[in-house]
Amino acid sequence: MSSSGDQNRKPMCRSVWLRRQRAKMKHHGSTVSLAGTRGPLCQKGDTKFAGNTAPVLELDKLPEDVLHHIHSLVPLRDAARAACVSHRFLRSWRRFPNLTFNWETFRLNLDGGPLCERAKKFANGIHHILQNHSGTGVKTLDLQVRPCGDVITANHLDIWLQAAVKSGIIKLALDIPRIQSIRFNFSCSLISSAASSLQSFSLSYCGFHPTPTIGCLRSLKNVSLTLVHISEDELGCFFDCTISLEKLEVALCDDITFLKIPSHLHQLRILRVFVCRRLQVIEINAPKVSTFLFRAPPMKISISNPSQLKNMTMNGQCYSGMFQYALTKLQPITSNLQTLTLLSSVEALNMPVSPDRFLHLRNLKIYCCGMDNFDYFSLVYFLKACPTLESFFLSAGPHFDLRRDSIIHEYSHADSLHRRRTAEFHQSNLKKVTITGFCSAKSLIELTCLILESSSSLRFLVLDTTGGYDNTGICDCMEREAVMEALRGVEAIKKYIKGKVPSSVHLEVLEPCGRCHIPKLRKLGPAR
């Protein structure tokens, strides 16, 4: 079982996974499909076949609109190849709707050859395709040209955008080199020309200075602004032009100090705010925001209608005091919150004696990011504050500098553990607890024992002493010291926790992998 709680997938050791991947590659190595053949994108409309070809569908028998629809469904690279072998596909290619340009499209290896040469080839390919496009029928323009550095100029971007951004476009995404962030300003006239159809709009590393002249963006649903130079007044002007916004992301926009989400955005459901360094206040007046994702230091946040907010992530990684902030400041905006995720790197050892209460919270996830000497027992205040909690996830690792005085040593006796006590409380709804990065820290063992004693409804307890598993079930790499601490954690579980687990609770202990992790101890010898 993975540390995320998926009981249907068994973790696979990395060495086994690699062998299986090699076997698959060997088995499929001789099978090459037409779509997988390497070659340059069609740039000149060459209609001659090269080499042997397989039987093809008689295209002349298909209506033009059907053929165009089929052509529009394939990736850009394959669509270009098809245009090289068919006059009818060539006509369709000149109004191809989905233009996504990235290094993968052109099969350019980020690690191979001079970067400047590859960037020039990339830029030339984009330029040729857009210059030969009719300019009509574009539904998606996604320019992912960040790796190109100063090869891509503001003049390139202006020409490409003018060629492709017309009325009828649905998705526009621009991710340009960081060097252009102070040189390139996205033209308001472009977004005005697509005001009636544009549904998704994403900008990165540029300036954007909207005015009321852009008109009403009545179809716009998704907006993402990352490292965009825009003032709070200009952002407010942009909001005034939108009425159907459903998702909004504002990240690394350092010119903003006060983010105000207006009340007329009745469709806004998801709001993401990440690391705007000068931001001090967030005011959310949109009435139906249900998901709020935040990454920055603790700051003043107000929500006019908190009853709709169901999911919240407060990421204080690289900052201090997020746990303290959650226990003392969040309650006024979390009256109906059901899922809360917290991340922090630095916390005071003393949590508030009388924390705010989260009366409807069902799922709580806490990530301690590199907090080796954190008092995990203080997290009991969160359990007290959440009387309806059903699932609790704690990431306690990785551990970089675990002090010896916080460790229950391998040769300690079970009766030498003097656990701290707290005011009696009872969890009548908690069903599942998962702790990853479980180690032999005394405070973590104390917290686990208290959960077992106070949670009569508990059914599953997962203690993962490793770094976890990725989405495919493959065990993550672990350094030698991490493996040794994981083994101490396993020993601590056997000594101080296993005997306290009721028969009604299923205990699962995830140990270091015998194929990937344990051999490191044998190869490197004893620790110094």
From TrEMBL:
What positions does the domain F-box occupy?
59-98
UniProt name for this protein = F-box domain-containing protein
Q: Which residues form the At1g61320/AtMIF1 LRR domain?
A: 129-513
Which Pfam families does this entry report, sorted A to Z?
A: F-box, LRR_At1g61320_AtMIF1
